[in-house]
Amino acid sequence: MSDLFAARSQMAMSLAFHIVFASAGIAMPVLMAVAEALWLRQGDEAGRALARRWAKGTAILFAVGAVSGTVLSFELGLLWPAFMAFAGPVFGMPFALEGFAFFVEAIFLGVYLYGWDRVSPRAHWLAGAMVALSGTLSGIFVVIANAWMNTPAGFRLEGGRVVEVEPLAAMANSAALSEALHMTLAAFAAVGFAVAAIHAHRLRREPRNLFHRRAVAIALTVGGTAALLQPLSGDLSARVVARSQPAKLAALEGQFETERGAPLRIGGWPDEAARRTRYAVEIPYGLSLLAFHDPHAEVRGLDEFARADRPPVAVVHVAFQVMVACGAAMALTALVGAGLFLRRRRLPDAAWYLRLVTLTGPLGFVAMEAGWTVTEVGRQPWIVQGVMRTSEAVTPMPHLAFPFVSFTILYLFLAAVVIVLLRRQVFASPRLGADAAAEKG
């Protein structure tokens, strides 16, 4: 196993694990705060019970996310020292701000967890709102740092060294807004649908339990709204990629030749030897229209780039198709639910629809993992687009396979612990009838 392959594999595995908990840190506090707001405004005891349960889940996921995030920070220094030495002075500020937001989130989460019946109800809800706000900002700052790797800005190169660093300009790079918006909506959609799926499954078994009815309503509203908004942020992201990373765009769509009025491809398998994408359904002018808002715009093909500068086309294209397919399924599920709600003026609780919500529950996290594959693999062979190659940033360290296997085992163990804790502390639900009180204590 080469140093580069081992380092990239370990980083990919760590990121794939951590992103689940980072997303939970963004979205779970929002669900928690919404549930408590229902209790405060309407006296909804099911909302209070949900807020308490979801707070326990947030605490568990926050703790494991802190561990996996700490591992990632060590890996950045150990596996990619050349990259950190080069880029640290430029994009260090968003990481510092992320650390500040993380500590604010931890403080207010402590207040929220231990403040029940100790502070006023309004102050308690405000603590939960601060957890939600700081958790969202924490994720945004990390994504801004990643956006800088795709569209570097805020510095000048002189003799291979970074000079004239402007941290604020680096944070305001051209991909920052689109990536932050896309990732935040992805977190809300993924967590919202996952939580809705769990409670929809339970609601099918306990159709009169208000605990699950409120949970499905809140989670599906948050997740469904995010899923319906996600195509708009995807459009913004596509236009940024088209301008700043044309090789990535070509790989996303399996576009081998430069073409005006390029088609949008659905599905298919890129055949690099034949320089075509086989079995794809092509929508004429679709790619030019989406990427440049001009059906006759020119889209650069992979043939314009040296083979050494192309990303792995098959991996990027398939991951992109998976992401879009999962996102479309979630948006369609949300749209159907909205239609049923508007027609009946109540939670869509038909068995077939609850089964559909249950089946779409995992798709948000599948889409998220696929999306990060597109972002990171699509940038290759660059770790900083057009500035530093990934091969130049890796540590020449022997036996990298050993820490890779060790960390994989650790993450699998943590995942098992999380599942057990969530089943005991969160998934076990009180039985609340139409007029029942929420669980006490």
Q: How many helical elements?
A: 13
pLDDT < 50 stretches = 434-441
- Measured distance between first and last alpha carbons: 54 Å
Shape: globular
Q: How many beta-strand segments?
A: 10
Calculate Rg over CA atoms: 23 Å
Largest sheet: 2 strands, antiparallel
Tell me the strand order in the biggest sheet: 1-2
User: Could you say how many structural domains there are in total?
Assistant: 1
Mean pLDDT: 86
Content of β-strand: 5-15%
Class based on secondary structure composition and strand pairing:
mainly alpha
Please bin the fraction of helical residues. Answer: 55-70%
| Helix-strand string | HHHHEEHHHHEEEEEHEHHHEEH
Describe this structure in words.
With 441 residues, the chain is mainly α. The protein has one domain (3-243, 311-427). It is built from 13 helices and ten strands. The strands form five sheets. It has a two-stranded antiparallel sheet with strand order 1-2. The chain starts with a helix and ends in a 14-residue tail after the last helix. Mean pLDDT is 86; it is low at 434-441.
Name the features:
single chain, 441 residues, 70% helix, 13 helices, two-stranded antiparallel sheet, 6% strand, disordered C terminus, mainly alpha
Question: What layout of secondary structure does this protein have?
Answer:
Layout: H1 3-42, H2 45-79, H3 81-114, H4 121-150, E1 156-158, E2 161-163, H5 167-171, H6 176-205, H7 210-244, H8 246-253, E3 259-260, E4 264-266, E5 269-271, E6 276-278, E7 281-283, H9 286-292, E8 298-299, H10 313-344, H11 351-360, H12 363-377, E9 382-384, E10 388-389, H13 401-427
Helix pairs in contact: 1-2, 1-4, 1-6, 1-13, 2-3, 2-7, 2-13, 3-4, 4-6, 6-7, 6-11, 6-12, 7-10, 8-10, 10-11, 10-12
